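Working notes for the structural subgroup meeting. M.R. asked for a predicted model of this chain before we commit to crystallization trials. I am recording the input and output together here so anyone reviewing the notebook later can reproduce the run.

Input as submitted:
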Amino acid sequence: MKRKQIPGLMLGITTRDSVLFSGGIGYADVQNRRAVNNHTLFRMGSITKSLVSLAMLKLVGEGKLDLNDEVRRIAPEVPFLNKWENTNPVRIINLLEHTTGFDDFKLNNMYSVSRAYVSTKEIMLRQKNSMICRWKPSERYSYCNVNYAIAGYIISKITGVEYDRYLTEQILKPAGMVHSNFNLFSQYPELDVREYTGSNGNLVPVPSVSFLIGPAGSLWSDSEDMVSLLKLFLNNGKGVISPEAMEQMETSHSSLSVRAGLKNGYGLGNEFFGKFRGHGGLLGTCRSSYRYSRELGVGFVVSSNGNGLADIEDLIAAFLTRNIVVPQKEKFQLNKEAVAPYLGYYQVENPRFDLLGFAERLLLLKVEIINDTLNLNLLGNKRKIVPTGTMMFANKGADYSNIVFLTNGAKKVLVFNDRYCERVPAVWAITRRLILILGVLFSVSSIFPFVIGCVSFSLKKINVLKLIVLCLPFCAVLFLIVALFNFQKVLSDSYLLYKLENVTGISLTIYCGTLLFGLLSFFNLFFLPKNLMLFERKAVAGYMLFVVVSLFIVAVVLFLNGWIGLCTWDM
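Returned structure, recorded in token form:
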């Protein structure tokens, strides 16, 4: 905590019947020296999804719902679009396992500084622009908060009460979680942690922003309550759901990779972490994680109010499993004949955010056989994988399968760690990326004529027209750099996403910067050729021509992916 400058930490460790630790370390409020204790409330973020799934399974157990129910039949007012609905409908199981194919939240629909009450239905409807199936439901996993906005609404519709009230009465109280609550923002300043960011000894408090997708992450909880939740899981759902429902929660059901035999994926609001299961969460600057193992009979929870968790959860997991002897798994020989059709290059085709998908697709993963061993090669970093079946594999040293090769129609597919990748033609894939890389390099190199032009003009060696010709390309690049810097800032410090909800300095900078880059790149393509006679040397003229063509290529790629005139407040 000291090394990573984590201001406060919640910590709970328990067996099935004995609490080993419940409390905290550090400060919930640094300025007022309020220490973290076992009743300090932290933002649990996406851990909320586990409770929503418990509620869904409770309704299933009562016969009010079925995991295979079609959402269109249960709630036709949910405004999603699925062109495969007749053959591959969106089902309840798809919502809970993130296999709908929906885009995740639009960046202006994550946080707000408003403190207005929002109903479960309003929460769901606000996310309608993300509810478009990008591929067939039950095909690929792609984490999506919007799924749980819909799940929360369905709970509300079936039960006749708001999702948070139902979860409180039917899940929290029976589980013994008597201090926890579902609030979109901090409502108990005496108990809630303050949130911080910063480094180099300078912790800065940040606003407790309102979360706009309540069922996906609105839980506030303390170590005492989270230990009670861990006990529920360790005791097979006792008091809330049946052992059979608990097993359902921990099982992946709906994706192609699951049907191909890869069972260790995302269940119903329940993640796989090797020897443990559980879920993680990030909301504001609070990062949280709970994990449990019924086999080991132990579980733990950690949460911080700033600067992440610094892999503390992995340290605890390693400590709790330090004496576990991993049994030898059956060894399989690599079936070269079966794998041969799957060798080649792959790119990601299940991006979480459509807006960022083109960047994910730029990374090429090569599957190759080296010295009779199958390797995944990413940018020269080769990872050996060992067979655990004919088409299933594991990272070397791992005791579970996390990689599978399969066919989806005519496409060869590789799924590893929930990343769905499709094979692409090698020559075309490499050529496209090479053109884009050269385009970026030539575009950035426009700083040199910019500097030379400014110096030459100050020495009165060139006129204004030539100065403009030399400087305009880098001006375009500069606009884009400023826009991307601001975008990256709100993406890395995600609590700042509230600044994208409306027209603000940051959102306007992103819009203007990307728009001016596009306009100037287009303008340069016509402006420079008309003024090539200003350059006496053909090499210089040729170089400048390469620069403006490169700018145009980059601009076209960004335009096709929605990045020119990126209007974050209207997504």
